[in-house]
Every structure is written in C-alpha cells, then in structure tokens.
Amino acid sequence: MLLFSVAQLGCGVQKWEPMNMEFALGMKLFGEEKKFVMKRRYWAWTLSGLGLERADTAEKALDIIVDLLEKYGQGGNCSEDGVTFSYHNSFLIADRKEAWILETAGKYWAAEKVQEGVRNISNQLSITTKIDREHPDMRNYAKQKGWWDGKKEFDFAATYSYIDTTKMTISPGRYCEGYKLLNKHKGNITFETMMEILRDKPSGINMEGEFLTTASMVSILPQDSNFPCIHFFTGTPDPERSVFKPFIFVPNISQLLDTSSPTFEVEDPVKKKPHFKTKLDRRHPLYQEHQQALKVIDKKEEKSETMLENMRSLEKELFKEMESILQNKHLDVDKIVNLFPQCAKDEIQIYKLNISSK
C-alpha cells in the first residue's frame, strides 16, 4: 500500500533567471543588479490542479506539469498584500502503481521515479544523481551558466541550488527533520503515522507564524483496484489542532459547501486591473469556524480541552469507519456521497458548541 502526503508544495532555493512580470522591479540576482518586468505565472497549486484534472496516471500528470512549465512558466505572485513573493516548486506525484518526485527551477526540471523507501520534499531540492527524466536542455543550461563542468557526475540539487546539499540529510531544517521522522517509521508507516509527522511542530513540518501550514492531506492508495483510494484532508491550518476528514471519489458527490471558498466573479481583485488593490475574505465556512475555535483553544481553559477531545474522538470514529471499508471491501455509495460534507458539518458543530458554551 502506498501512502503519500502533500502538506506543502514548494522549493525556495533554486537558481533561476529573471522572468517577465507586469511591473518594473529592481532586485539583485546572481550578484548583479537586474531590472525586469514580470508577467503573471502559474502557481504550484495551479500546476498540481491541472495535472490532477487532465491525467489518469502519475507519469501523465508529470508530463502535463512540465509541458505547462515550458509553455507558461511559473513563479506567480503568492501574495494579495502588495508584497512580491514567489517561489518555484517541487511535487510529489503518486497513483496506485507508481510515484514520482518532480523538482523545478524556472522551466528546467528533473524527475525521479521512487521505487522503494521513503521520500519527502521540504523547501530545498532533493533529487541528486538518480534522474529518470529531465528537461532536454537542463544540463546544457547549467554548463552555460558555469554551474557544471560537463565532466563530473551531474547532481541536480547541487547544480541548481545555492545551498550546500551534501549534508542535507543531517543538517538542521525541515527536509532533514522530515527525512528522519519518515526513516524512524520506515517499513511500518500507516496513515496515522503520516498524520503524526504532519502534526510535528519541533521538526518544523507543522509550521507556525507567517508561513503557517495552511492545510494537510494524507492519502491511502491501495495497489489493488478493488479497494477504494481514501484521501484525508484537514481543510484548515495547523493539523495538530485540526481534524483529518476522509474523502472517497464516487459518482454524484454532494457539493462541498462548507469547504468551498466564495467566488467573486468580476469583483475579484485578481481579475481587475491594476490587480490586488482590494482584499476580499476568501475563507470558507469551516476555515472561519476553525479560526474562532483556535482562539478558544489558545486560552487553554477547560472547554478548550473538551473541544480537542471531541475533535480527536470524531477523527478516531472516522478512522475506524475507513479501516472497516478497507477490510471488508464494502462501499456504501449512498453514504459516501455525503461523507466529507457531513464530516465538515460535524466538525463545525463541535466548534460552535464549545465557542457558544459559557
């Protein structure tokens, strides 16, 4: 059984060339002053979504993502606050039969097929010399820039990173800590193990502060197609204080109203020019209730303990239900169509009861 987690996507240390954007911007790049104009570009989650939407295998999703990178580029501004913030991305791509790591720097990329063991991506390139697929000009570009002499064995992470990657599995940081946590449980990883890792704050996997972990996901992908794939989502920040809720794809799924962000059509500042001159509340109902619940939990009063206990109790019941489905191979489709929406409603009810209680 293959399990994978996609809590955060992104890699923040790659070398890249200036891209065209919509406004003049001065910055230092490679030690010299550059002025350039930036265009709107794809974000990681856009590339992920299009790969999921258009592909039916992991490798086809990889093909779609790299084709989009070549055609449109990446690095769109991630902020609506007027601050220019962008990054290039890494992806974990998996289906029932295979898994890939795709890591990028601008339009250049390398991909590794994962055939055994554990892998993680966290804010740095991790593909070294085992490269199963790559951009056709990736090595030539590195030679032109003086990053690789064309003689020694090509190491993607070492070549396309600013940092020293030789000690990345032993140096402090999210990648190293995630690597250690996964290897600690290697050979005995369950979906609950993955959730524990995603909830781990000392390692930095569960991030706090300005770069808060915004949502978390763990998937069970049985190789036997007679078993359903089960995906657990929080849909809320801080998995340590969130509920992992199961979702199974079946026909006629009920609308996910409590976890759908509002749409603003022509009033959306992303569609207006100049962009992002106004800021809208994009939080979905579950997110809003969860934010109120965190205020109660942070006070560490009696009802905060009650709320956390109720959240974990709901989660455990959901886990038992999913384990029963996998053991018995029985899927009540009429019930599953409402599974995730009902879980979200149950979670919201826990928050409302404890927030309103005196």
Query: Can you tell me the number of structural domains?
Result: 2
* Quaternary organisation of the protein chains: single chain
Question: Helices and strands, in N-to-C order?
Answer: EEEHHEEEEHHHHEEEHHHH
Using DSSP, what is the number of strands? 10
> What is Rg?
22 Å
Morphology: globular
Mean pLDDT: 83
Largest sheet: 4 strands, antiparallel
Q: If helices are DSSP runs of H or I spanning 4 or more residues, what is the number of helices? A: 10
Q: Beta-strand percentage?
A: 5-15%
Separation, N- and C-terminal Cα atoms: 46 Å
Helix percentage range: 25-40%
**SS class:** alpha+beta
Low-confidence stretches at least 5 residues in length (pLDDT < 50)? 1-38
Q: What is the topology, as strand order, of the major beta sheet? A: 1-8-9-10
Family: Belongs to the peptidase C69 family. Secernin subfamily.
Pfam family, one: Peptidase_C69
Protein name: Secernin 3
InterPro entries: Peptidase_C69
Describe the 3D structure.
This protein has 358 residues and is of the alpha+beta class. The chain folds into 2 domains: 8-209, no CATH class; 226-358, no CATH class. Helix content is 34%, strand content 14%. A 4-stranded antiparallel sheet has the order 1-8-9-10. It has a 4-stranded antiparallel sheet with strand order 4-5-6-7, with helices on one face. The longest helix has 27 residues, at 302-328. The protein is globular, with a radius of gyration of 22 Å. The N and C termini lie far apart (46 Å).
Question: Which key features would you list for this structure?
Answer:
2 domains, 34% helix, 10 helices, 358 residues, 4-stranded antiparallel beta sheet, alpha+beta, 10 strands
